[in-house]
Design a protein that fits this description.
Layout (H helix, E strand, L loop, with lengths): L6 H4 L12 H13 L5 E5 L6 H12 L15 H7 L6 E5 L6 H11 L9 E6 L6 H12 L5 E7 L7 H4 L3 E4 L5 H15 L2 E2 L1 H11 L3 H15 L2 E2 L1 H7 L5 H13 L2 H13 L4 H17 L13 H13 L2 H17 L6 H20 L5 E4 L11 E4 L6 H7 L4 H5 L4 E2 L5 H6 L9 E2 L14 H14 L5 H9 L3 E2 L4 E6 L2 H9 L1 H12 L5 E6 L11 H11 L2 H9 L5
Parallel strand pairs: 1-4, 1-5, 2-3, 3-4, 6-7, 13-14
Antiparallel strand pairs: 8-9, 10-11, 12-13
Length: 571
């Protein structure tokens, strides 16, 4: 049985022409050979799998080739090329710095550099993963790297250039290798597939190229893996199943659901994605990329930036025509915020589902309509100021209900809520309102039951009971509610004095919950809360020694005279 050779080794480039995605670097190296402008030290840096070590080997072989071609490629026929291809060359030495990173290893290398080449003009030393050398090893290598013998050339390769000390960097010509483009990887995979007798769909090769993230070695490894899974016929379905990649179809179906405002379908699709084993963060990141691709398709000039197969590109173009630029920009903003806050969210599924709600609401908000609905008051919770929404027909799609929705439904059905003034954080931060008095009145929903009277003491007992129930979860609201005792006024109105508008905003946000609790506990639905913001009505707290002295001196002015006569001071 013949031994299997992985594609990453079998199709490894053996000349500059076959190197993929690094044309500027290969052209520079060939011109250096052509003009005999060879430096004594090179540094090849860049991500994994982009051809750093491969280019170093090709460069070393071409320099010593005795029968170099007209386009300055190695002939692969002379003794120097054959010995290199057979791994028996005495002029080209490869060193793995990860396992030879001590000062002693570098000293051995320096001793070896003193020996001139037996065949060819140059002795070349390729040091891979050079960033793994210790600091002492780097320092021992400095002198030789700066002034090597005329026949010695060093080629250093690394994935982490920032770990190399500046004194080494200053002695090398630095070549930065880029990630290989998805299009270039796909073309090379197509070439490999033909060489292996494998029939592969272009979309499948494109998925492999995207998964490789710019690394050709990774792409060839994925290709071998999928061929082992699917045989000699590789399809798009085989690629996404074996590489655990989320199908484009999910994103297209979700976008159609967003355009219809169909919350139910979007939630069911998301649930199916989770059941397939995909991470919610990966999903939301992919959804952001989908909206980006749709936005790119809006202009024929930028459609070339779409790195997908021909059939997928057609689907993107069709769906892009259905989406407005405003919709796509808002969708990108929502998904980006979801991605940023995903890690800090405790209920991650709800966090993503809330973003799906917002995405469905974009079109509804633009049209300024709401689904047809009937507002009823629940018999079990008549004291709540928030109405219960009951859908008339949940089986119909949300898009069909939009056309039937009366435009003035919000004006006819919503409860009566009055606010005497609005809160502005901007004004509060600027200090534009130094002393204000604001009142929010919430008109409760009238019912037929008899309201029970209550006293100031009973009201305070229930007020403090509610504050204690939210003490751990909402500490700021607890402090606000307990900072001043509310007072019972006429007609069951409760007046609460607050020191600033930030406290007032906290009460406003919790108003419905507070009223609901008081209505139930005191058995009176006519209770309403008035919040007043004024610094004059709040007793100033005495904290410092100066505050204490000023307080006492106001009550007894003779204290100032005593202090002056006896020349006293306080600690």
């Amino acid at each position: 049985m013949e031994n299997f050779i992985v594609s990453a080794r079998k199709y490894r480039p053996d000349n500059f022409m076959t190197v993929v995605g690094q044309e500027s670097i290969t052209r520079t190296l060939k011109n250096a050979i052509k003009n005999n402008h060879l430096a004594h030290a090179y540094l090849f840096c860049g991500p994994r799998g982009v051809g750093k070590t491969t280019c170093a080997r090709i460069f070393a072989k071409t320099i010593n080739c005795s029968n170099i071609s007209s386009d300055f490629e190695a002939c692969n026929e002379c003794e120097s090329c054959k010995s290199f291809n057979d791994n028996r060359s005495y002029n080209i030495h490869e060193l793995d710095a990860a396992s030879n990173n001590s000062v002693e290893d570098i000293r051995n290398l320096i001793d070896q550099v003193r020996i001139p080449p037996q065949v060819g003009k140059y002795s070349l030393y390729i040091i891979d993963e050079v960033h793994m050398l210790s600091t002492n090893a780097f320092n021992a290598f400095l002198k030789t790297l700066e002034e090597p013998p005329s026949y010695a050339i060093f080629i250093l390769a690394t994935t982490e250039k920032h770990k190399i000390i500046p004194t080494i960097l200053s002695r090398c010509q630095i070549f930065d290798f880029n990630r290989i483009k998805i299009e270039d990887i796909s073309k090379h995979l197509e070439y490999v597939a033909k060489g292996e007798g494998v029939s592969a769909e272009p979309e499948a090769l494109n998925i492999i190229a995207q998964k490789a993230d710019g690394a050709m070695r990774d792409a060839l490894s994925f290709f071998d893996q999928i061929v082992s899974f699917a045989g000699n016929s590789v399809t798009y379905a085989d690629a996404i199943e074996n590489l655990n990649v989320l199908d484009y179809d999910y994103y297209f179906k979700l976008t159609y659901a967003f355009l219809e405002g169909n919350i139910s379908n979007s939630l069911l699709i998301f649930d199916e994605i989770l059941n397939c084993g995909f991470d919610a963060n990966v999903f939301i990141t992919g959804l952001s990329g989908h909206f980006r691709d749709l936005l790119v398709c809006k202009d024929s000039i930028t459609i070339q930036l779409l790195e997908v197969g021909p059939s997928i590109k057609k689907l993107y173009s069709e769906q892009s025509g259905m989406c407005s630029v405003d919709f796509l920009l808002k969708a990108l903003e929502i998904t980006s915020d979801c991605d940023i806050n995903y890690k800090t969210s405790k209920n991650k599924r709800l966090h993503v589902e809330l973003s799906l709600f917002k995405l469905c609401y974009i079109v509804l908000q633009k049209n300024q309509v709401v689904p047809q609905q009937t507002i009823v008051i629940s018999s079990t919770d008549q004291s709540s100021i928030i109405p219960t929404v009951k859908a008339e027909n949940t089986s119909e799609s949300l898009s069909s209900k939009l056309a039937e929705a009366p435009k003035d439904i919000a004006k006819k059905e919503l409860p009566n809520i009055k606010t005497s003034s609005s809160f502005s954080i901007k004004d509060a931060m600027k200090g534009s309102v130094a002393k204000t008095e604001k009142t929010q009145e919430v008109t409760p929903i009238a019912i037929q039951e008899t309201d029970t009277p209550f006293t100031q003491e009973q009201m305070l007992e229930k007020w403090n009971s509610f504050a204690e129930s939210i003490k751990e979860e909402k500490a700021r609201l607890y402090n606000t509610m307990t900072s001043q005792n509310p007072e019972l006024k006429e007609d069951f109105s409760i007046e609460l004095i607050l020191s600033n508008e930030l406290q007032q905003q906290l009460i406003f946000e919790a108003m419905s919950s507070i009223l609901k609790y008081l209505h139930e506990e005191l058995k009176n639905t006519n209770i309403k809360i008035n919040t007043i913001v004024t610094e004059d009505k709040i007793e100033k707290k005495i904290y410092t020694n100066d505050d204490k002295y000023n307080f006492l001196s106001e009550k007894n002015p003779n204290l100032n005279l005593l202090r002056d006569q006896l020349n006293l001071d306080f600690n």
